[in-house]
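Figure S4 source data
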Amino acid sequence: MLKIGLTTAALIGIGWSLCACSGGGPSPIMAIRRLSSVKLDAANSSIDQGAVLDLENSLDKSISVGEEFKVALESNAGTGYEWQCQLKDDPTILVDNPPEIAPVDTGVVGGRVRTIFVLHGTSQGTVKIVFVLVRSWEKDVAPAKSLTLTLTVMPASAATK
């Protein structure tokens, strides 16, 4: 009797999880993307190669020359606000343009989105990268939010992990 109960529960669980594939919820791929996003602890000053940094506060971090990582920032698409990276030409870091935009609330028009910037450590040094939440058509208006990532790019052998 116990085997029948466990088998039934397993089949219900499999069926329930497959419901998400037919438009009943977020896709399994989006769930995997969320799980693969690593929130870095403020005490951990080093960013691992390929990591996603969910930036919610201004931080100081370090990487090695040649490493790449991503900075993810959330906003509401329907408000007209978007995240922009304000970085003057700097030999220390390269930021890919345009950033990737990924929906957080799938199936919701004007819902939350993640703006994902890809950064590459190109040479040794320290740089302040400012991310601002703005409406691109509004001129001479202060950003709704501003976050600063102070990034130290160290020689490949010097970064502490």
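Figure S5 source data
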Amino acid sequence: MQRSNLLVLGGMILGAAATAVYFNVPPTTAMAQPAQAAKDGMTTKDITLDQAGAIMKAAADKAKEINTKMDIAIVDAGGNLKAFARMDGAWLGSIDIAQKKARTARYFDMNTGDIGKLSQPGGPLYNIEHSNGGLITFPGGIPLKASDGTVIGAIGVSGSTVENDHTVAAAGAAALK
């Protein structure tokens, strides 16, 4: 059997220039199966598509109520985009900001406005916004928590004042059931 010169890592093809490392490990030890992982206590809670939809609707309803147009991003427990909406007429530049607010809130399990207070000159997190491919450290990003307090994702909102962004994000987060 001929091996390809392409390395696939996490579903991403790295290309022929990448150095491939091959492991000869039986599948049962190389990767925990879902049933075994649950038995061993290695479970990850994640936001469902239905939950993301309810959060999205609540956030969009709040934006309409306060007469603003928003970009709304919801990420899962791993910080990956789960749902996104750009309200009609919302700024194109806010698409990236909303997604980065959601990721920032999830990466640090804190409201982005709280991170912003810590990232001011002289603060303990000064310049953190330059890490992780770019973070947003002003209000509008909120972690989403399950009923037991486990963070299962985050919402990020952008398109108006930071106060309105936070208000809309908070309305979305409050819809989590």
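DSSP finds six helices and six strands in the chain. The two ends are 51 Å apart (CA to CA).
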